[in-house]
Design a protein that fits this description.
alpha/beta
């Protein structure tokens, strides 16, 4: 895994354990829609002391944008808070994904602990609806986005931005108390191969432009592009060359 990541230009700083193997995930794709069953294994053994090592600390402190998948809430909240505090104290972007409705429903305390550090929150329509239900904010996702964006923050350097994707429907973005919806270019059903990784691809595309201080509209456009590419391919793969312009 380490070799594959580095071959694709991704620097990794894995914590390695001996008592568990690397985690795995079974994927079933039927008519382009997917179901997943994860076996976390070693991924469930991550500990905050890994971030305290000199090499790890130098590694993450050199970054300017941080992204945490919500699934990590089940493993090490203390690790998330460590990165969140560093971002807040140094004027860096900290981003998190709601990731799944069950996290919103059953890990709400862990999520609440990390939420003040979040400058950007991502989620899809089902996750956003679950969050609105838990908070009793109603079913209007634009309202949910606005209320979530207004929740207290640990740092006032950046206003919180909330981004809700809705598959082929408009992407909702709330920033500075204003909600804007961005249409998604239609994709013929016959071109849809595999929705695996669509949400992650969107975030990757979005963050690629955020790192360049691009306007939010450009960040969303890049997110739509990346998601559109990945759903037309089998598995979480991309072409060797990127034609995004």
């Amino acid at each position: 895994m380490e070799e594959c990541a580095r071959a694709d230009g991704v620097n990794v700083m894995f914590q390695k354990v001996t008592e568990e193997p690397t985690g795995t995930c079974a994927v079933l794709v039927v008519d382009a829609e997917r179901s997943l069953i994860a076996n976390l294994a070693a991924a469930n053994k991550f500990t905050p002391d890994h971030l305290g090592k000199d090499e790890s600390k130098a590694f993450y402190e050199s970054a300017g944008v941080y992204y945490i998948a919500g699934f990590f809430l089940t493993v090490s909240v203390d690790s998330i808070v460590t990165i969140g505090k560093h971002a807040a104290e140094n004027g860096k972007y900290f981003c998190m994904n709601l990731s799944a409705p069950f996290l919103v429903q059953f890990f709400k305390e862990q999520m609440a602990t990390c939420m003040p550090y979040c400058d950007f929150i991502f989620g899809n329509e089902s996750e956003a609806a679950a969050y609105g239900k838990e908070k009793e904010w109603g079913e209007d996702l634009a309202v949910v986005a606005m209320k979530l964006a207004a929740e207290p923050k640990a740092s006032g350097t950046y206003p919180r931005t909330v981004v809700f994707t809705q598959g082929s429907e408009k992407t909702i973005v709330c920033q500075n108390g204003t909600v804007v919806e961005f249409p998604v270019d239609p994709l013929p059903r016959e071109n849809l191969v595999d929705t695996n990784g669509a949400g992650d691809a969107f975030v990757g595309g979005f963050l690629s432009q955020l790192m360049r201080n691009a306007p939010i509209a450009e960040c969303v456009r890049a997110g739509h592009y990346a998601a559109r590419v990945i759903i037309q391919r089998s598995g979480c793969t991309f072409p060797a060359e990127c034609d995004y312009q």
